[in-house]
Amino acid sequence: MAKKVAVLAVNPVNGAGLFQYLEAFFENGIQYKTFAVSDTTQIKTNSGISLTTDDIVSNLIDHEDQYDALVFACGDAVPQFEDNADKQYNQDMLTVIKAFGDNNKMLIGHCAAALFFDNLGIGIGKKVALHPFIKDVVKGVVGTDEKVVVADNIYTAQTENAIPELIPELLKALETV
Question: Is this model's pTM higher than 0.90 or not?
Answer without folding.
Answer: yes
